[in-house]
Amino acid sequence: MNYYESHITIEPVFEEELEKFKNICSKYKFRVAELLLQKRKIDKPEISTKDSFCTGRFKDLKTAKNDTLSLVEELKENVFTVKRYKVEYIVLDVRL
After folding, report:
1. CA end-to-end span of the chain, whole Å?
2. Which residue from 4, 12, 50, 6 is spatially nearest to 31, judged by alpha carbons?
3. Residue 72 phi, psi dihedral angles, 5° rounding
4. Could you read off the pLDDT of 21-65 as tens digits, one per residue?
């Protein structure tokens, strides 16, 4: 099944701001990625300090575009620094 996927990248946020980001994203059915970095197996995973981002999935382009733009605006209104956003058409997605 083909679908649209949207990604929004913001400056990294932590603790209370991360929870606020998650709450805003959930209103649009976007999920916030848990970006954990682990250089070696013996190291404890650490939260990425480079970016925070969220992803949404949609059946049609109009909804994908509208929800993405609405979420971007709400994030900006809440003083999050949006670095990038995009909507992609997914033709094939295989996870092994």
Report:
1. 17
2. 6
3. -55, -45
4. 999 999 999 999 876 444 566 655 555 567 899 999 999 999 999
